[in-house]
Amino acid sequence: MKFDSSLFLGCPMYIQRLLEAKINSTLKRGKSVLLLGPRQTGKTTLIDRIPAQKRITLANPFDRIRYEKEPFLLTAEVEKLAIEKSSIRKQSKHPLVMIDEIQKLPLLMDAVQDLIDRKVAMFILTGSSARKLCRRGHVNLLPGRVIPLRLDPLNQEEIPSSYQSLNNLLLYGSLPEIVLQKNKYECENLLEAYVTIYLEEEIRAEAIVRDIGHFARFLELAASESGKIVNFTKLSQEIGITHSTIASYYQILEDCLVAERIEPLIMSKTRRKLTKSQKYLFYDLGVRRVAAREGDRLSREQLGHLFEHYVGLELIRFIRLSQYRYRLKYWRDQNGPEVDWVIETGDHYIPIEVKWTQMPALSDAKHLQIFLREYPQAKNGYIICQTPHAMKLNKNIYALPWDQLSEVFK
After folding, report:
1. Cβ atoms of 112 and 123 closer than 8 Å
2. Cβ contact 292:218 at 8 Å
3. How many helices and strands, by DSSP H and E, does the chain display?
4. Which residues of the chain are under the pLDDT cut of 50?
5. Which domains does the chain have, with CATH numbers?
6. SS3 of 341, please?
7. What is the pLDDT of residue 92?
8. How far, in Å, are 260, 331, 383, 387 from residue 400 at the CA level?
9. Residue 393, helix vs strand vs coil
10. Which pTM does this prediction carry?
């Protein structure tokens, strides 16, 4: 697969994010926002588009040290701002305050909580690590006081048409800065820098793990195994660390928003050998490839696996942007049949198979047919593939082009 640099000519400098409307509607309801997301997904760019009376960037050492020495300054400054705001006729008395990279100074969360409770101000907080917002083992997300939202890399509906090549998406992912680059060399350099910075800043500088060498090896293997069923024992033997350490390393990836955990569907009336292990998906395919130390010349088998990974990530992003409390799972019987992805809606299932083909056939749907017989609450099954047009393979199984994935929710 090759990267087509000509696709990037004429791309806009800002890509409209679907989450922006959701943030604005939340603020109009008088609610504060906690915007979480991995690094480089565009959190700062997004909130910079929203008018605010005060902005604090804790990535700036001056601001960070200032508030670290005197945390009460935030309360004093915001209270003064609120007084000034309320004195202006026809304006809301509640100023909007933005704090970027709140995980760098979690102790400010207490002041934010107090100001929200006293209705002094509204806030937009951003963070790239739930781990650093922990207090006594619990994540302090100000429950009931802020609406937590998640900003992911660009999804299908946000990506400019000039970039929407399946090759580009599988090899280079969909981080905004990557999408706006003009050639593969710039993309490679940015992705390499991200993986290096992640190791240096998130792991070494924060002293999350004692042995950075073991974690670096784990990160490489976890990236290469991303999207597959995890075998903790195999990983622990290969790296030379305990099973529990592997589990803790995966928890670090989750807390730093780098990996998504996918649970299996284990409820069945007739099958007793359903797999119960989890899968983990790296949040971006470009980051995954570089962290796994893979090149850009991949086999058909590798491409098929990445395609399945891509569909899983897109389903997660569609679910997050929707108003529904759906969950993404997978289904596998140890005796053979398996379905790549299953959307659990609460009262029914949507099974999805991913195939690296342009000409899907009913024979590609044999595991979907087994699933539909096993679970009557699943009405239709879908094959996501490279067919140019949607197809009906039988009465309740459809094949969809990969760029029409959202049709499974309709």
Report:
1. yes
2. no
3. 14, 15
4. 1-12, 136, 138-139, 207
5. 19-150 (3.40.50.300), 166-261+281-299 (no CATH), 310-409 (3.40.1350.10)
6. strand
7. 57
8. 25, 20, 6, 7
9. strand
10. 0.90
